[in-house]
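User: Hey, quick favor. My workstation is busy. Could you predict this chain's structure for me?
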Amino acid sequence: MQRERGFTVLELMVTLVVAAIVLSLAVPSFQRTVANNAVRSTTSDLVSALNAARAESMSSRAMVTVSPQGGDWGNGWTIVHQASINSDDAYQLADKVRIRSDIASVVFRPEGGLTAAGNNITICHEDATIDGRRITLSFLGRVTVETIAGGCGA
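Assistant: No problem, here it is.
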Protein backbone atom coordinates (compact mmCIF):
# COMPACT_ATOMS: atom_id res chain seq x y z
CA MET A 1 0.00 0.00 0.00
CA GLN A 2 1.34 3.40 -0.98
CA ARG A 3 1.41 6.12 1.64
CA GLU A 4 0.11 9.65 0.76
CA ARG A 5 2.31 12.61 1.63
CA GLY A 6 1.03 15.95 2.90
CA PHE A 7 -0.07 17.79 6.01
CA THR A 8 -2.76 16.77 8.43
CA VAL A 9 -5.48 19.14 9.52
CA LEU A 10 -3.97 19.21 13.02
CA GLU A 11 -0.54 20.27 11.66
CA LEU A 12 -2.13 23.06 9.61
CA MET A 13 -4.12 24.34 12.62
CA VAL A 14 -1.02 24.39 14.84
CA THR A 15 0.87 26.33 12.15
CA LEU A 16 -1.95 28.89 11.90
CA VAL A 17 -2.05 29.35 15.69
CA VAL A 18 1.71 29.93 15.83
CA ALA A 19 1.49 32.42 12.94
CA ALA A 20 -1.35 34.30 14.69
CA ILE A 21 0.67 34.58 17.91
CA VAL A 22 3.72 35.90 16.05
CA LEU A 23 1.59 38.48 14.20
CA SER A 24 -0.12 39.63 17.39
CA LEU A 25 3.31 40.41 18.85
CA ALA A 26 4.67 42.11 15.72
CA VAL A 27 1.76 44.39 14.74
CA PRO A 28 1.87 46.78 17.77
CA SER A 29 5.62 47.23 17.30
CA PHE A 30 5.09 47.94 13.61
CA GLN A 31 2.36 50.52 14.37
CA ARG A 32 4.72 52.33 16.76
CA THR A 33 7.40 52.40 14.06
CA VAL A 34 4.93 53.86 11.55
CA ALA A 35 3.91 56.57 14.06
CA ASN A 36 7.56 57.48 14.79
CA ASN A 37 8.27 57.69 11.06
CA ALA A 38 5.24 59.95 10.51
CA VAL A 39 6.57 62.45 13.09
CA ARG A 40 10.09 62.26 11.68
CA SER A 41 9.01 62.73 8.07
CA THR A 42 6.72 65.66 8.92
CA THR A 43 9.56 67.28 10.86
CA SER A 44 11.95 66.70 7.96
CA ASP A 45 9.45 68.16 5.47
CA LEU A 46 8.92 71.30 7.57
CA VAL A 47 12.66 71.80 8.20
CA SER A 48 13.32 71.38 4.47
CA ALA A 49 10.59 73.89 3.66
CA LEU A 50 12.03 76.40 6.16
CA ASN A 51 15.57 75.96 4.80
CA ALA A 52 14.32 76.26 1.20
CA ALA A 53 12.43 79.45 2.08
CA ARG A 54 15.53 80.91 3.71
CA ALA A 55 17.68 80.03 0.69
CA GLU A 56 15.06 81.49 -1.67
CA SER A 57 14.93 84.73 0.33
CA MET A 58 18.70 85.14 0.09
CA SER A 59 18.96 84.22 -3.59
CA SER A 60 16.03 86.37 -4.71
CA ARG A 61 16.87 89.20 -2.24
CA ALA A 62 13.20 89.34 -1.26
CA MET A 63 11.01 88.30 1.64
CA VAL A 64 9.77 84.70 1.64
CA THR A 65 7.02 83.57 4.01
CA VAL A 66 6.21 80.13 5.39
CA SER A 67 2.68 80.28 6.71
CA PRO A 68 0.17 77.78 8.05
CA GLN A 69 -2.63 76.83 5.67
CA GLY A 70 -5.90 78.31 6.80
CA GLY A 71 -4.17 79.91 9.80
CA ASP A 72 -3.53 76.53 11.46
CA TRP A 73 -0.24 74.62 11.24
CA GLY A 74 -2.29 71.43 11.63
CA ASN A 75 -3.61 71.93 8.08
CA GLY A 76 -0.11 72.02 6.59
CA TRP A 77 1.95 74.99 5.42
CA THR A 78 2.64 77.07 2.35
CA ILE A 79 5.79 78.80 1.11
CA VAL A 80 4.90 82.18 -0.38
CA HIS A 81 7.52 83.65 -2.74
CA GLN A 82 6.76 87.37 -2.65
CA ALA A 83 9.08 88.48 -5.43
CA SER A 84 9.46 85.38 -7.54
CA ILE A 85 7.87 83.81 -10.55
CA ASN A 86 7.82 80.48 -8.70
CA SER A 87 4.41 79.24 -7.67
CA ASP A 88 3.66 78.89 -3.99
CA ASP A 89 4.43 75.45 -2.54
CA ALA A 90 1.90 73.74 -0.26
CA TYR A 91 2.56 70.83 2.12
CA GLN A 92 0.20 68.49 3.98
CA LEU A 93 0.66 66.67 7.27
CA ALA A 94 0.89 62.91 7.71
CA ASP A 95 -2.12 61.23 9.34
CA LYS A 96 -2.43 61.57 13.13
CA VAL A 97 0.39 64.15 13.34
CA ARG A 98 -0.25 67.48 15.07
CA ILE A 99 1.71 70.73 14.87
CA ARG A 100 1.44 73.33 17.62
CA SER A 101 2.88 76.82 17.48
CA ASP A 102 1.98 80.39 18.40
CA ILE A 103 3.72 81.61 15.24
CA ALA A 104 1.35 83.25 12.76
CA SER A 105 3.95 82.86 10.00
CA VAL A 106 7.73 82.68 9.51
CA VAL A 107 9.06 85.51 7.36
CA PHE A 108 12.64 85.36 6.09
CA ARG A 109 14.34 88.66 5.22
CA PRO A 110 16.56 89.00 2.12
CA GLU A 111 19.62 88.49 4.35
CA GLY A 112 18.27 85.11 5.53
CA GLY A 113 17.26 86.16 9.03
CA LEU A 114 13.79 86.30 10.51
CA THR A 115 11.63 89.38 10.92
CA ALA A 116 10.74 88.25 14.48
CA ALA A 117 12.81 86.79 17.32
CA GLY A 118 13.32 83.04 17.91
CA ASN A 119 10.31 80.80 17.46
CA ASN A 120 9.35 77.22 18.31
CA ILE A 121 7.19 74.77 16.39
CA THR A 122 6.21 71.50 18.11
CA ILE A 123 5.35 68.37 16.12
CA CYS A 124 3.56 65.54 17.95
CA HIS A 125 1.62 62.36 17.24
CA GLU A 126 -1.90 61.65 18.49
CA ASP A 127 -0.38 58.79 20.49
CA ALA A 128 1.16 60.76 23.36
CA THR A 129 3.81 58.09 23.98
CA ILE A 130 5.51 58.72 20.61
CA ASP A 131 8.53 61.05 20.87
CA GLY A 132 7.77 64.49 19.49
CA ARG A 133 10.05 67.04 17.85
CA ARG A 134 10.62 70.74 18.53
CA ILE A 135 11.87 72.97 15.73
CA THR A 136 13.59 76.14 16.93
CA LEU A 137 14.24 79.10 14.65
CA SER A 138 16.93 81.57 15.66
CA PHE A 139 16.73 85.28 14.81
CA LEU A 140 19.41 84.66 12.16
CA GLY A 141 17.22 82.02 10.47
CA ARG A 142 19.06 78.94 11.70
CA VAL A 143 16.81 75.91 12.11
CA THR A 144 17.50 73.33 14.83
CA VAL A 145 15.53 70.24 15.84
CA GLU A 146 15.37 68.52 19.21
CA THR A 147 13.53 65.40 20.32
CA ILE A 148 10.85 65.63 23.00
CA ALA A 149 11.51 62.36 24.81
CA GLY A 150 8.51 60.58 26.23
CA GLY A 151 6.08 62.26 23.83
CA CYS A 152 4.26 65.55 23.92
CA GLY A 153 1.76 64.58 26.60
CA ALA A 154 -1.96 65.10 26.42
